[in-house]
Amino acid sequence: MGWFRHFLDDVEAKEIPLLGRKYTWSNERSSPTLVRLDRAFCCVDWEDIFPDDVLQSSSLEAVQQNWNAPVSSSCAVERLFLKLQRLSQDLQKWGQRKIGNVKLQLGIAKEILHHLEIARDSRDLSPSEEWLRKKLKLHCLGLASLERTIARLRSRVLYLKEGDANTSFFHRQARYRKKKNFIAKLQVGDQTVADQEDKQEAVLQFYENLLGTAEEREYTIDFAEIGI
What we know:
mainly alpha
């Protein structure tokens, strides 16, 4: 993992911010451990070509189907609680189907790899066995990196190489923050708005309804006339 992190720094790879989700993995316990395992990186040249790139979660369809399913309750608060509870359980199952149990997968891969290496001590492996052994070694490396990611989430620039402290570098950092804070969509009543103008109108209407509008007054005070 240390070599991998140094490699990311050497090639100046940058992480594309994830929109719509904070975490992508749960251990499915009553007090769950929530972490983000899925990450995407891009190089500086690619980011210059696509400065508005974003990364979005693919669980939107699963969430929508779960949320739209009916709930048998006449109390609005209870319906909301039951929907959130059901959604949490279904998202955990969805994550298991998409990612699976990392520890279990790693344990199975290591066990099969161990038997193949024992067999290689006494005979030559067949081409298919040798192919499987190499694939399992790569698979173990990938799963091990996922395990370490659970305990170590990195989201900072560790160091600046010589020549990096220039305008271009900090412009890229500013673009990264802008993309990270970007609001991809807003929920307005029963509708989801994603167009920029529609989002601006939704925010304006929300705060106008929240703060109200000034009413016409019959009388006003001329502060300049009274010396204020």
